[in-house]
C-alpha cells in the first residue's frame, strides 16, 4: 500500500474523488485514508460526503470489514430511512457475507418499490450467479434486458451465461446484439465468430469466416482472429470436396493468407524478444 501521511483532509478527498472518476478501487488504501484522516472531517465536504461514504462502504466490504461497513450503513439509514440506495448498501453487505437469501429479500423490496431500479436488478442476477443458479440468473437477466435493451454489459453477461450452459444459438443472438451496439469493436465480431465456429456445420463456419474477416478488417493485429480464420478455412476445405469449387479455392486462399500472417506475427514477436534480450544483456554488461 502506498503511504499518504503528508496529505491534508482536502487532498485526501480530492484523491478519493480522482479514484472514483477513474474507477480505481484501491479498497485497502481507501479504508486506511478514511480511518486515519477523513473520519473526523467528513462533515466538511457538503453533499459530496454521501458519495464519499458510498466509496468507503464498498471498500470496507472488499476488505471484509463487515462490522465497520454496517456501522456506516446504519448511520445513513437513520438519516435516510426510506432511501432505496441505502437499502442497496444493506443488500451488498449481506451479499458480501454470503447471506444470499437475505440479500435477495432486500433486493426484492427495492425492485417492488421501483421496477426501473437497474442496479438492484443487476445485483439480483449477481447473487443468483454466486449461488450457482445459472438458469435462474439467465431468466432474471433476460427479463431485465426486456426493459433495458441498451445495456451492453448486460448483453455481455447474458452471452457468457448462455455459453456456460452451452446454449450457443442464444449466445450468438446476444453477440449479434453486442455488434449492433458496438459495430466497430473488433472483439465483438471475434466473439460471434468464436461462437459460430464452436457451433459447427458449413453454415456456421461460413458465418464464422465472415466475422473473423471483419475482425481483422477492424484490427489486423488480432492474432486470435487470424488463428480462428486459419482453422475455419481448413475446416471448410474438408467440407468442400470438389477441387474445382470456387468456395474451396477461396477457403484455400484464406488458409494460406492466415498462415502467412500468423508466421509473420511470430517472427515479429521473436525479433522483439531478441532485441529485448540484447538490451538487457547490454545493461547487465555495463
From TrEMBL:
Main location (coarse class): endoplasmic reticulum
The entry's keywords: Endoplasmic reticulum, Membrane, Repeat, TPR repeat
Keyword Endoplasmic reticulum: yes
Function (record text): Part of the endoplasmic reticulum membrane protein complex (EMC) that enables the energy-independent insertion into endoplasmic reticulum membranes of newly synthesized membrane proteins.
Superkingdom field: Eukaryota
Assembly, per entry: Component of the ER membrane protein complex (EMC).
Family classification: Belongs to the EMC2 family.
Protein name per its UniProtKB record: ER membrane protein complex subunit 2
Domain EMC2 TPR-like: 88-195
Compartments where located: Endoplasmic reticulum membrane
Keyword presence, Membrane: yes
InterPro entries reported for this sequence: EMC2-like (IPR039856), TPR-like_helical_dom_sf (IPR011990), TPR_EMC2 (IPR055217)
Pfam families in the cross-refs: TPR_EMC2 (PF22890)
Membrane topology of the entry: Peripheral membrane protein
Lineage of origin: Eukaryota, Metazoa, Ecdysozoa, Arthropoda, Hexapoda
GO cellular component: EMC complex
Amino acid at each position: 500500500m502506498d503511504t499518504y501521511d503528508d496529505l491534508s483532509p482536502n487532498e485526501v478527498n480530492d484523491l478519493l474523488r480522482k479514484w472514483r472518476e477513474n474507477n480505481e478501487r484501491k479498497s485497502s488504501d481507501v479504508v486506511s485514508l478514511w480511518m486515519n484522516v477523513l473520519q473526523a472531517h467528513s462533515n466538511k465536504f457538503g453533499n459530496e460526503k454521501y458519495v464519499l461514504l458510498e466509496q468507503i462502504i464498498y471498500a470496507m466490504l472488499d476488505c471484509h470489514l463487515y462490522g465497520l461497513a454496517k456501522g456506516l450503513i446504519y448511520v445513513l439509514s437513520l438519516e435516510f430511512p426510506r432511501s432505496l440506495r441505502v437499502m442497496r448498501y444493506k443488500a451488498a453487505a449481506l451479499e458480501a457475507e454470503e447471506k444470499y437469501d437475505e440479500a435477495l429479500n432486500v433486493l426484492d423490496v427495492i425492485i417492488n418499490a421501483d421496477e426501473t431500479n437497474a442496479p438492484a436488478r443487476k445485483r439480483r442476477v449477481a447473487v443468483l450467479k454466486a449461488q450457482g443458479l445459472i438458469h435462474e440468473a439467465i431468466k432474471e437477466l433476460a427479463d431485465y434486458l426486456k426493459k433495458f435493451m441498451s445495456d451492453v454489459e448486460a448483453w455481455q453477461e447474458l452471452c457468457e451465461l448462455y455459453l456456460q450452459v452451452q446454449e450457443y444459438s442464444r449466445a450468438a443472438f446476444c453477440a449479434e446484439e453486442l455488434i449492433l451496439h458496438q459495430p466497430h469493436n473488433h472483439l465483438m465480431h471475434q466473439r460471434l465468430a468464436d461462437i459460430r465456429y464452436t457451433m459447427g456445420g458449413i453454415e456456421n463456419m461460413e458465418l464464422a469466416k465472415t466475422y473473423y474477416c471483419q475482425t481483422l478488417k477492424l484490427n489486423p493485429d488480432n492474432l486470435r482472429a487470424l488463428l480462428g480464420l486459419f482453422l475455419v478455412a481448413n475446416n471448410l476445405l474438408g467440407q468442400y470436396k470438389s477441387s474445382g469449387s470456387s468456395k474451396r479455392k477461396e477457403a484455400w486462399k484464406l488458409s494460406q493468407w492466415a498462415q502467412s500472417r500468423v508466421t509473420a506475427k511470430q517472427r515479429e514477436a521473436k525479433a522483439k524478444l531478441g532485441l529485448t534480450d540484447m538490451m538487457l544483456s547490454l545493461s547487465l554488461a555495463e
